[in-house]
Amino acid sequence: MTSRHSRSSPATARLVEENLLTLAQLRGMVAALTPERYREAFGEHGRHTLGKHVRHIIDHYDALLDGLDRGAEVIDYEQRQRDEALEQWPQQAARHLAAVEARLSLLGSGPSPDALTLAYPLDDERLSLASSLNRELAFLTSHSIHHMAIIALLAEQSGIHLPESFGVHPSTLRHWQRASEEQAPLSRRSA
Description:
Blueprint: E1 5-7, H1 10-31, H2 35-39, H3 50-69, E2 74-75, H4 85-88, H5 90-107, E3 111-113, E4 116-122, E5 125-131, H6 133-157, H7 170-190
Parallel strand pairs: 2-4
Antiparallel strand pairs: 1-3, 4-5
InterPro entries: DinB, DinB/YfiT-like
Keywords: Metal-binding
Pfam families: DinB
């Protein structure tokens, strides 16, 4: 099957930028952790660690980027690598995140596939859902932020202090910025 490609759109470049900002924030947090903190177990069954959530985020980016590198028109997030070293060693995860960022940055400037198909398991069958690179980039931002919000809760329980913006979706950050700008003129008038 021949893959059709077109020049990357301004929307693609903006979505890539959102992902890059999200991953840079995650990489900064991961790079500052000791392996003990990164592996610390949380929850009744001890299944949650910061590292497992980071590895899960990385796996999803790798699934998309590896699929695109192979020229695949089908993206399957269920076929993840699940490299346990990425959930055990924060410095290795930070290096991998930097590599993902480098690969992602190329998407904003080069050709991109016109259409993708998302493989989605449903009970005993796999659905093939129409998708696009932009839709998958939007998904990856939201998916990453969702897991980063969980990471922030776990980090707080462990006494790790993160910026208020960590694990907050870019749309919420933009809303906070607009609200702050709207409040500034009011405070100047009352002064």
